[in-house]
Amino acid sequence: MDPEEIAELGKRWAAAEVAGDTDTLGGMVVDGFRLVGPLGFVLDREQWLDRYRSGALATLRLDWRDVEVRVHGDTAIAIGVHDQDATHQGNRVDGTFRATHVLVRGEDGWRIAGMHLSPMGAPPAFAR
Which residue windows are transmembrane per the record (predicted)? Predict the structure, then answer.
């Protein structure tokens, strides 16, 4: 049941990002949540939520797909592909990223403890 629960949480998370719903997003993550963004920056929980509160970030589309979930006791690792159409401070920040979500199970169910996004691109010329 855990992988299905985590997949459902992922769908709710993506929908809340598109809606800019900081109440829902805030309830889905732990207090010590961290996001490592695709350029290596690190945001804590409040910084992550403030991007929506301030209007700096607008996610127009977010598709969380091809997700593989591995559960290790009360910790789960979900690795998938994160496709987004979004703007940050009026600039397009569309992209396709390999995304890792770290989740922890508590009394209230699964919550997200961390996310890490890495840009996906074509392999270098020597690897083709």
Answer: none
